[in-house]
Amino acid sequence: MRAHSEAPLRSDGLHGAPSRKGSVTAVKSPGDIERELKHLIIETLLLGDVSPEEIGSSDPLFGEGLGLDSIDALELSMAIAKKYEIGMDSKPEESRNIYRTVATLAEHIRCQLARETPDS
After folding, report:
1. Nearest residue to 116 via CA among 25, 22, 15
2. Closest CA to 65 of 54, 75, 74
3. How crowded is residue 108: how many other Cβ atoms within 10 Å of its Cβ?
4. Which of 18, 25, 100, 104 has its CA 20 to 30 A from that of 31?
5. What is the number of alpha carbons within 13 Å of residue 50 lying toward its C-beta?
6. pLDDT tens for residues 26-78?
7. Distance CA 51, CA 83 (A)
8. What is the C-alpha separation between 92 and 54, in angstroms, rounded?
9. How far apart are CA 100 and CA 120, in angstroms?
10. CATH 1.10.1200.10 fits 15-116, yes or no
11. CA distance linking residue 118 with residue 102, whole number of Å
Protein backbone atom coordinates (compact mmCIF):
# COMPACT_ATOMS: atom_id res chain seq x y z
CA MET A 1 0.00 0.00 0.00
CA ARG A 2 1.35 3.45 -0.92
CA ALA A 3 1.64 6.08 1.78
CA HIS A 4 0.59 8.83 -0.63
CA SER A 5 -0.86 9.12 -4.08
CA GLU A 6 1.13 10.50 -6.99
CA ALA A 7 -0.08 12.88 -9.64
CA PRO A 8 -1.09 10.95 -12.77
CA LEU A 9 1.48 10.53 -15.52
CA ARG A 10 0.28 12.26 -18.66
CA SER A 11 0.83 11.12 -22.21
CA ASP A 12 3.62 13.72 -22.59
CA GLY A 13 5.54 12.14 -19.70
CA LEU A 14 4.88 14.94 -17.21
CA HIS A 15 3.10 14.49 -13.93
CA GLY A 16 -0.02 16.54 -13.47
CA ALA A 17 -3.06 16.96 -11.32
CA PRO A 18 -6.47 18.39 -12.14
CA SER A 19 -6.71 22.14 -11.62
CA ARG A 20 -9.80 23.89 -10.39
CA LYS A 21 -11.03 24.16 -13.96
CA GLY A 22 -10.69 20.43 -14.55
CA SER A 23 -7.68 20.57 -16.85
CA VAL A 24 -4.27 19.14 -16.05
CA THR A 25 -1.70 21.32 -14.29
CA ALA A 26 1.70 19.82 -14.99
CA VAL A 27 4.52 19.78 -12.50
CA LYS A 28 7.27 21.25 -14.66
CA SER A 29 10.85 22.28 -14.13
CA PRO A 30 11.87 25.91 -14.61
CA GLY A 31 13.74 24.82 -17.78
CA ASP A 32 10.54 23.36 -19.25
CA ILE A 33 8.66 26.55 -18.47
CA GLU A 34 11.48 28.70 -19.88
CA ARG A 35 11.30 26.85 -23.21
CA GLU A 36 7.51 27.26 -23.30
CA LEU A 37 7.80 30.94 -22.41
CA LYS A 38 10.25 31.66 -25.20
CA HIS A 39 7.81 30.18 -27.72
CA LEU A 40 4.89 32.02 -26.07
CA ILE A 41 6.75 35.35 -26.21
CA ILE A 42 7.47 34.88 -29.92
CA GLU A 43 3.90 33.80 -30.75
CA THR A 44 2.11 36.35 -28.57
CA LEU A 45 4.21 39.33 -29.55
CA LEU A 46 4.55 38.29 -33.20
CA LEU A 47 8.35 38.21 -33.10
CA GLY A 48 8.71 36.09 -36.22
CA ASP A 49 12.28 37.27 -36.79
CA VAL A 50 13.41 35.94 -33.37
CA SER A 51 14.04 32.28 -32.57
CA PRO A 52 13.69 30.76 -29.08
CA GLU A 53 17.45 30.09 -29.07
CA GLU A 54 18.10 33.83 -29.46
CA ILE A 55 16.26 34.62 -26.23
CA GLY A 56 18.62 34.06 -23.33
CA SER A 57 16.98 32.91 -20.11
CA SER A 58 18.91 35.53 -18.11
CA ASP A 59 18.75 38.33 -20.72
CA PRO A 60 16.60 41.34 -19.77
CA LEU A 61 13.15 41.29 -21.37
CA PHE A 62 12.92 45.11 -21.30
CA GLY A 63 15.35 47.84 -22.33
CA GLU A 64 18.65 46.63 -23.75
CA GLY A 65 17.53 42.99 -23.78
CA LEU A 66 14.61 41.85 -25.89
CA GLY A 67 13.27 45.41 -25.91
CA LEU A 68 9.72 44.75 -24.72
CA ASP A 69 7.50 47.61 -23.55
CA SER A 70 4.52 47.91 -21.18
CA ILE A 71 2.00 46.92 -23.87
CA ASP A 72 4.06 43.80 -24.59
CA ALA A 73 4.06 43.02 -20.86
CA LEU A 74 0.27 43.29 -20.72
CA GLU A 75 -0.19 41.04 -23.76
CA LEU A 76 2.29 38.52 -22.39
CA SER A 77 0.64 38.58 -18.98
CA MET A 78 -2.73 37.76 -20.51
CA ALA A 79 -1.24 34.94 -22.61
CA ILE A 80 0.51 33.45 -19.55
CA ALA A 81 -2.66 33.66 -17.46
CA LYS A 82 -4.59 31.86 -20.18
CA LYS A 83 -1.97 29.16 -20.88
CA TYR A 84 -1.18 28.29 -17.28
CA GLU A 85 -4.54 29.23 -15.72
CA ILE A 86 -2.87 31.42 -13.10
CA GLY A 87 -3.30 35.02 -12.03
CA MET A 88 -0.48 37.35 -12.99
CA ASP A 89 -1.70 40.30 -10.93
CA SER A 90 0.99 41.90 -8.81
CA LYS A 91 2.20 45.25 -7.52
CA PRO A 92 4.33 47.30 -9.93
CA GLU A 93 7.60 46.60 -8.05
CA GLU A 94 6.84 42.87 -7.97
CA SER A 95 5.99 42.92 -11.67
CA ARG A 96 9.36 44.50 -12.52
CA ASN A 97 11.11 41.67 -10.67
CA ILE A 98 8.88 38.93 -12.12
CA TYR A 99 9.20 40.15 -15.73
CA ARG A 100 12.93 40.93 -15.49
CA THR A 101 14.05 37.81 -17.43
CA VAL A 102 12.62 34.59 -18.84
CA ALA A 103 14.17 32.79 -15.85
CA THR A 104 12.48 35.02 -13.23
CA LEU A 105 9.18 34.74 -15.07
CA ALA A 106 9.48 30.95 -15.30
CA GLU A 107 10.23 30.68 -11.58
CA HIS A 108 7.18 32.80 -10.73
CA ILE A 109 4.96 30.60 -12.92
CA ARG A 110 6.43 27.42 -11.40
CA CYS A 111 5.68 28.73 -7.89
CA GLN A 112 2.12 29.67 -8.89
CA LEU A 113 1.53 26.24 -10.42
CA ALA A 114 2.93 24.53 -7.33
CA ARG A 115 0.47 26.49 -5.14
CA GLU A 116 -2.48 25.36 -7.26
CA THR A 117 -1.50 21.69 -7.46
CA PRO A 118 -3.43 19.74 -4.79
CA ASP A 119 -1.25 18.13 -2.14
CA SER A 120 -0.81 14.42 -2.50
Report:
1. 25
2. 54
3. 21
4. 18
5. 18
6. 567 778 999 999 999 999 999 989 999 999 999 999 988 899 999 999 999 99
7. 20
8. 27
9. 33
10. yes
11. 26
Q: What Cα–Cα distance (Å) separates residue 22 from each residue in 10, 16, 39, 99, 109?
A: 14, 11, 25, 28, 19
Is the pTM above the cut of 0.85? no
User: Measuring CA to CA, how many Å separate 99 from each of 10, 23, 92, 117?
Assistant: 29, 26, 10, 23
For 70-110, what is each residue's pLDDT tens digit?
Answer: 999 999 999 999 999 988 777 888 888 999 999 999 999 99
Distance CA 99, CA 106 (A): 9
> What is the distance between the alpha carbons of residues 74 and 89, in angstroms, rounded to a whole number?
10
